Amino acid sequence: MTTKIGILISGRGSNMQSIARACSSGEIPAEVAVVVSNRADAAGLEWASAHGIPTAVLPHTDFADREAHDRAIVARLADAAVDWVCLAGYMRLLSPVLIDAFTNRILNIHPSLLPSFPGLHGQRDAFEYGVAVSGCTVHFVDLELDHGPIVVQRTAPVEGSIDAEALAARILTEEHRAYPEALRRLLTEPWSICGRRVVFDRAAP
Known about the structure:
With 205 residues, this protein is of the alpha/beta class.
């Protein structure tokens, strides 16, 4: 049975595109079953539709609270028989309703080397702090912001970046590599969560 991925977006969804392309090429042994957005104007919806991926728009403003919105998302993901959920520029915190429905099966990517520089402006904060190396982190999602166990990290040098926008572009290139890598490894290699670390064991049966 093919593993099915649901992707949540709020904007252009460039990481969504990298995941979908990796699925189409066979790099990730899965298919993108649905793309869900909380914004009707998310540019990624048009890209997904053009590539034959079902989409759904569930504006959070149409719901009484976060839990009600997440219940609607869970129902749409269940309709698509989704096994894993990927957040790709999804600008909403998740409630226990969604996290509990996909325990240890929700991933997010953040544009910094967590636990450094969590939050909305990871690239800017890293640049302004003066670090020599930044990067991105793919991690499991839990109830804390940018906090869950780390799956994959990739680095990006800060030197040569004239501003935070230039650094963000470097980091985004690594994001497009890290997210497919994380999914491929989780779906093809034995793994476990030990404390805050995801441990891969290629030698396991």
